[in-house]
Amino acid sequence: MPKARPLVHSAWFDFALTRLGGAERMDDMLGKELYRLSLYADLVPVSAADTAMRIYRTAPFLRDDGQIVRLWIYFVLRNDDAVELHHIEAVDEDMGSLAAP
Amino acid sequence: MRIATDMNHSTPTAGTSATSTSAAMSGAALCSPPLDLVNGSFNYGSICGVDEPSRRTGFLTKHVAPACCTRMSIEQIQREVGQLTDAERQQLSAWILATYPPRSVENLVSRAEQQARRGEWTPLPPSDDNLPTGEALGQALKRVKSLGLGR
User: Fold this and answer.
1) Residue B12 placed within a domain
2) Rounded distance, CA B13 to CA B7, Å?
3) Could you give the number of structural domains in chain B?
């Protein structure tokens, strides 16, 4: 397993996690996905030629309110190999696209 | 781990997603739960439009509001909290922290790392499903621009 990179983030990011969390399952998923990111950030490609931003989305997650969401994590892999976490959001999963083959 | 203090989101920014955390911070889709001092609990119903059964825990009951009023404005909350005794305020703070503990990247990742070390879970490399493409990627890039990320 590769060495975990440091995750650099703002206080806002922690605040966002607090707002996203609230259930043990969600916290567990958040932690695992962020740890995966710290290990494999380099395997997430740069999302466009004109930006260093990389975008990672988690597997679909069934939230307590019954909504299926994915967490989208926007980050930059810095030259010093740290993962700079910029933004995280929960995006409703389109049920139709899940059902489609 | 290091924590940078000067990044793009020192203040909440409105996102385009219905359930983005940015939206949540403005009290929208993620059901930011306001305090219900009458019941000594958070009242999810006031934001989400879902009535939560009244849960009377026994404290704060001396500040009784009319029966119809289970939703309070921020001003009302501040006023009610201001009237609490120190003991009640401590009780309220303890309850909030116990019920909604603050989370941090470090705490969550540390727990996942320990689980991985114990062999309870194996972190796998990202699959194609983790990498948005096509229209989804296009939408995400629009968000990158609209939120001013990566500058």
Assistant:
1) no
2) 12
3) 2
Range of the domain at A12: 7-99
Encode chain A (101 residues) as per-residue pLDDT tens digits: 889 999 999 888 888 888 886 677 888 899 999 999 999 999 999 987 777 899 999 989 888 778 888 999 999 999 999 999 999 988 888 754 444 43
Interaxial angle between packed helices B105-117 and A24-40, expressed in degrees from 0 to 180 and rounded to the nearest 10: 80
Whether residues B123 and B78 share a domain: the answer is no
How far apart (Å, rounded) are the C-alpha atoms in residues A23 and A98?
23
Identify whether A2 is part of a domain.
Answer: no
Q: How far is CA A9 from CA A99, B23, B42, B48, in A?
A: 35, 19, 29, 30
ipTM summary value = 0.85
| Residue B112 domain boundaries | 105-147
Q: Between chains, do B103 and A27 touch, taking CB under 8 Å as contact?
A: yes
Give pTM, 2 decimals. Answer: 0.61
Which of B1, B17, B131 faces A6 most closely, judged by CB atoms? B1
Q: Is the dihedral of CA B58, B59, B64, B67 positive or negative?
A: negative
Which among A11, A18, A45 has the least Cβ separation from residue B103?
A18
